[in-house]
Amino acid sequence: MGMFERDRQVFADAEPLDDSYEPEDVRERDEELEKYQRALQPIIDNRPTSNIFLYGKTGTGKTVATKYMLSHLENSAVGYDDVDLSTVWVSCENLSSSYQVAVALVNELRKNQNKDRISTTGYSQQRVFDLLYEELDALGGTVVIVLDEIDNIGHSDDILYGLPRARSNGYVDTVRPVIVGISNDFKFRDNLSPKVKDTLAEKEILFPPYDANQLRSILEPRAEKAFHDGVLTDDVVPLCAAFAAQDTGSARQAIRLLREAGELTQAKDSETVTEENVRDAQDELEKNQLYQGMQELTTQGHAVLCALAYHQALDEVPVRSRDLYERYLTVCDRLDADSVSERRVRDHLSDMHMLGLISVNERNEGLSAGRYHEYELDIPLKTVLDVLNSTSRFEELSDIIKSTADDNNLLQSGISDY
């Protein structure tokens, strides 16, 4: 036999443990699904529908619930002659402005009609919006526009003002756009401009982290399909659920932990996944989680991390938030990106602290300077630069920071430091 042989003793069908897997039902989200159904019901009733915004951390079921509900909505709409429904889905993961979102929407709509894409440059924002209105009007009826990870656009929120008002402003005649926004940032709405808040008139649905019992309920049917009978010991699924619940409450994390435990078992040529395999998988994923945590930061989060990395490269750490904020503004200017308030930068720093990416020290200088916080990286600088370098907008800044660190002999090694 060759180096690679097909596994016949651990995994029966690993697809249910894949991030892209869509379950037949959505578990442990009955209350949220009920709210979602009420929010979408006006579409079937053929009457004006409020925009819908879903909030919750990564892995709490927002995207799965949306795909599930829209699938049922589309199936139901077929039974009514007077309901004309279309859906368009855009991930805003790498989109940092309303202009970029509008271009992505135009191209997604054109793709469905086999029309040529438009360029991401060379048009004014108003022209792109006009093209978007033309494509939407050509569809007609109700168009549900899903903007996944919408918080990446930051303060550039014109798209959230223009789309809800398109019909009343006469930009479209035959279409009713309905926005479904999915955000990992509970405070995203707080940072929208007042005119957008007033225009959106949205229904909000919050997706809290899962507890251990809920995660166990989600894992069990996947585990039953994914593994051969008798492979998992009784404590494997509960332990995976407990680890994920204690950390993030993320179903995605629990599923990945179960899969990693199976893969480690397979690598050892063993026939049984045990508690020890789960604990080994947890150690392995904790290392990878630092990379993933950084990669899943918003553009603003990456800008804050970039500013802190530069102070690290200059050996100017720990750094006070006010000094870090000045560097952050420079980063945003270099990226031609919108900046957020110093308070929001501290929120991003708090999130990164919870992810284990940075350390925070509280200082109290008494009456002279008062109480303040200082920050520094809690992981190797090279690890941060690897992630920034993999994000196209930050490649140039990453190279500058690396050069600065090299000059100061401060660049640490990467994975080996764990």
Automatic annotation (TrEMBL):
Keywords: ATP-binding, DNA replication, Nucleotide-binding. Residues 48-206 form the AAA+ ATPase domain. ATP binds at residues 60-64, 210, 222. Residues 1-10 have a biased composition (Basic and acidic residues). One of its GO terms (biological process) is DNA replication. GO terms for molecular function: ATP binding. Residues 1-29 are annotated as: Disordered. Pfam families: AAA_22 (PF13401), Cdc6_lid (PF22703), WHD_Cdc6 (PF09079). HAMAP family: ORC1_type_DNA_replic_protein (MF_01407). Involved in regulation of DNA replication. Belongs to the CDC6/cdc18 family. NCBIfam families: orc1/cdc6 family replication initiation protein. This is ORC1-type DNA replication protein. It comes from Halovenus salina.
